[in-house]
Specification:
With 785 residues, the protein is of the alpha+beta class. It contains 15 helices and 44 strands. The strands form 9 sheets. Strands 10, 12, 14, 15, 19, 21, 22 and 23 form an 8-stranded mixed sheet that branches. The termini are far apart.
Length: 785
């Protein structure tokens, strides 16, 4: 072991950041969303690399000069095609098209006569790369065009990756700002260790941008109407936390921040970071004095100077919403902090709920990790009230991925007429509960009649090519070779150590055509990674945004759907479709909207899932909704879905399993046919070992109390803890509290009496008994019916 001695030199601390894509100095990365475009300035000598991330995806590169005119001389490669892809994108009506139009207009770019250098296409392998150089400065437009996916042809549109190695290394003061979300009203740079004040009108938007990453910004606001009356009522953190029931405002229903009179001043509309502080004050002189740095510049003094023109009284320490400040509270009730989570370009957007005087700082702290030890700039933009910015948080497919803002599913237009209670789920807004029904009525509709719910966030991947079967056989635990076209199988996907990547279903469309449907993007990345590592000729392409789906579940679901589903003569009719089977179909008749219907679900009832392209979602929903009226159809949200799946013993990622849990411990050991599946698959050796030496087991609990228990509550036999609750509910149909729990195998026998710890685990306990699960319909007779 190295020790510091007079002969040895100190070594720098090693810090790994596996959750971030670390690029060489001067390199920038952009991801062009499927069906989208990116517009970026380039300089002479910049080296451009475009990558077909998933394969089979065409890409267009169009260059224009600084005056906005098409200029083929900007790139070293000359045009070889028209700009049909760009024009098709601009012809759309989605957010991507609107942003592209606005960006072109802002730069005064005319693409009417543009031509493109077109690369990649149908035969392009995953990871295919093309490199070119810029001959002179200009503007580069990169597109990932595509048409509506046919669910049978699996012709999905996928992203393109763009890298630019700059010929000139930009200093930190020139750090690239993200493209404005619209034409700004104000565009203010808040330089490191300073603060700036500004005013906004009611309804206008305020965007606080972390320019370089890991930089805190304290924000404060005052209603001008109250200032005019001599009342200096700033945003009040305690009032805000109390009224929204959360530590800080977030996009959605708990979005507003209030003053001391409980009047809302701002509403958070978008947030790409998700970690902020509303407990501590802005940094102040007392903090630095006590740390041994008297006279250190601080945010509170900077606030005082910035607010002086508005005659707002100085304070020794300003309370504020401390954006990007990474604080938390540990088990000992101590507030601690670390480097911010924010990355370059991360932002928070608020909407002013009244005319405001605002102030924002670029925190000067350089004596600890608050700003990553290196204070940098903050940038503020404001936008007109007429802009239509959707509520959204950032979702990253993986920690190093480009953030994607929360999306509305294709069925949102219909479901949003029935509720405003939405929650973010895997990058999409999904209904939590509905206005008039509520979770209890929604639940009973599923158990006694029928329900419809939006499950579009499920991740879909098209797995195609001559080695597609070999890839699926290697990556999932079930024996895919036994699967016929038109059949579906539920399976686990594991890592080498036996821990689960995900659970999901495999659809076999044809001999070399599969569709994987799971809960997260890590499963698709695992498939793609294995295809590359094994050199298999197989493509794995994300079709989540091309294939949205609703579930129609309940005893009346078959009678409902047989009235609206038409299937080709060579396919089974709706009534003939057996459990875990699927068929291409249409709504109404031969000319109706195309769908894929599968007899699958997550409710423990007879049920089906309908998959369609987003453009057909309204037609599909309307057909189901209209006919469903006579069958007692109700909409169902996530609250009621959780009840259904717990009763039915259906597991959920993050509750019953994670990457440390194997399928046996997750209660789905039936998905691992170690004896009958002779082929090797990822994790097989570890699963054999773990099955022979089990440590934990998922069990059912019957709780002998009406006291609600929660996920994470400890499970005890006498004093020691032997497990924890993974999911729980008060079952309407069983009329008692039930739970799922993972416990040590020593105490996993049926009939074992246990206690569930509340408070500190010892001061209050609830008695329970280990019972078989599923609690409801243990033989699965209802979904099989």
């Amino acid at each position: 072991m190295d020790t510091l001695s007079p002969q040895s030199e100190p070594k720098p601390s090693i810090i790994l950041r596996p959750g971030e894509l670390v690029l060489p100095e001067g390199m920038e990365r952009f991801v062009i969303a499927a069906g989208g475009s990116v517009i970026v300035d380039v300089e002479t000598g910049d080296k451009i690399s475009v990558v077909d991330m998933e394969g089979k995806q065409a890409c267009e590169l169009i260059s224009v000069d600084k005056a906005g005119r098409f200029d083929a001389g900007v790139l070293s490669e000359k045009p070889n095609a028209g700009a049909d892809g760009l024009h098709s994108i601009l012809a759309g009506s989605d957010e991507s098209a609107k942003r592209a139009h606005a960006s072109l207009k802002r730069r005064n770019i005319d693409v009417s006569k543009a031509k493109s250098f077109r690369v990649f296409g149908e035969d392009s392998p995953m990871g295919n790369r093309v490199e070119i150089t810029t001959e002179r400065e200009g503007i580069l437009i990169v597109c990932a065009p595509g048409s509506a996916m046919d669910a049978e042809l699996q012709n999905t549109t996928t992203p393109i990756e763009l890298f630019i190695q700059r010929s000139r290394i930009r200093p930190a003061s020139e750090a690239r700002l993200p493209e404005p979300l619209a034409d700004p009203v104000l565009d203010i740079r808040v330089h490191a260790a300073t603060a700036e004040s500004f005013t906004v009108k009611e309804g206008e938007y305020i965007q606080i941008i972390d320019v370089s990453g890991r930089q805190c910004s304290d924000f404060q606001a005052f209603a001008t109407s109250k200032l005019d009356k001599g009342k200096e009522l700033a945003l009040d953190a305690t009032i805000t936390r109390s009224l929204i029931g959360m530590s800080n405002p977030v996009p959605g229903l708990p979005a507003k921040a209030f003053d001391r009179e409980m009047e809302p001043l701002v509403e958070v509309i978008q947030d790409t970071c998700g970690r902020h502080d509303v407990f501590l004050t802005a940094c102040n002189s007392r903090y630095y004095d006590d740390m041994g740095y008297p006279g250190h510049v601080n945010c509170s003094d900077n606030f005082n100077r910035a607010l002086d023109p508005y005659s707002i009284a100085s304070r020794r320490g300003w309370e504020a919403i401390n954006y990007f400040y990474n604080t938390n509270i540990d088990d000992a009730n101590q507030i601690y902090f670390d480097e911010p989570w924010s990355r370059s370009g991360d932002y928070v957007m608020m909407r002013a709920l009244t005319d405001l005087v605002c102030v924002a700082s670029a925190c000067p702290c350089d004596i600890d990790a608050a700003n990553g030890w290196n204070p940098t700039d903050i940038h503020v933009r404001t936008y007109k009230k007429t802009e239509d910015f959707k509520r959204a948080t950032a979702f990253r497919m993986t920690p190093e991925s480009t953030p994607q803002m929360t999306k509305e599913t294709a069925f949102h237009e219909r479901f949003s007429k029935l509720t405003r209670d939405y929650t973010e789920y895997a990058g999409y807004w999904l209904p939590n509960r509905f206005n008039n029904e509520g979770p209890t009525e929604e639940y009973w509709a599923a158990r006694e009649k029928c329900m419809v719910m939006d499950l579009s966030p499920l991740r879909k991947y098209e797995v195609t090519g001559p080695d597609a079967e070999a890839l699926m056989q290697h990556c999932v635990t079930r024996n895919i070779r036994k699967l016929s076209p038109g059949q579906v199988v539920y399976t686990a996907m594991c890592y080498e150590h036996g821990g689960m990547v995900d659970d999901g279903t495999v659809y076999r469309l044809d001999q070399d055509n599969f569709r994987w449907i799971g809960g997260n993007d890590l499963s698709g990345i695992q498939l793609r990674k294995q295809a590359e590592a094994l050199g298999l000729k197989a493509w794995v392409r994300n079709s989540t945004d091309q294939l949205h789906n609703i579930a129609v579940q309940g005893p009346n679901s078959r009678d409902l759907l047989k009235e609206i589903i038409w299937t080709p003569p060579n396919r089974p009719e709706l009534e003939e479709l057996e459990w875990f089977r699927f068929t291409p179909a249409r709504i109404g008749d031969f000319h109706g909207a195309p769908v894929v219907v599968s007899r699958t679900g997550y409710s423990g009832e007879l049920g089906y899932e309908l998959f369609c392209h987003p453009k057909d979602a309204n037609a599909v929903f309307d057909a189901v909704w209209e006919v469903g009226k006579k069958y007692g159809l109700k909409p169902l949200g996530l609250e009621a879905l959780d009840w259904l799946r717990i009763e039915a013993g259906l597991i959920f990622a993050g509750s019953e399993f994670d990457d440390q849990t194997d399928p046996f411990e997750a209660g789905i050991g039936f998905t691992v046919p170690l004896k009958s599946k002779e082929d090797n698959f990822i994790g097989k050796e570890a699963l054999i070992r773990r099955k022979e030496n089990p440590q934990k087991k998922l069990v059912g609990l019957e709780i002998h109390s009406q006291v609600i228990v929660g996920a994470g509550d400890c499970v005890h036999v006498d004093r020691p803890q032997i497990g924890e609750v993974t999911s729980s509910m008060r079952s309407p149909v069983l009329k008692k509290n039930i739970a799922l729990a993972r416990v040590d195998v020593t105490h996993a026998e049926l009939g074992t009496e246990v206690e569930i710890g509340k408070l500190d685990g010892h001061a209050k306990r609830v008695p329970a008994t280990i019972v078989p699960f599923p609690h409801y319909d243990p033989k699965k007779e209802r979904p099989r019916s």
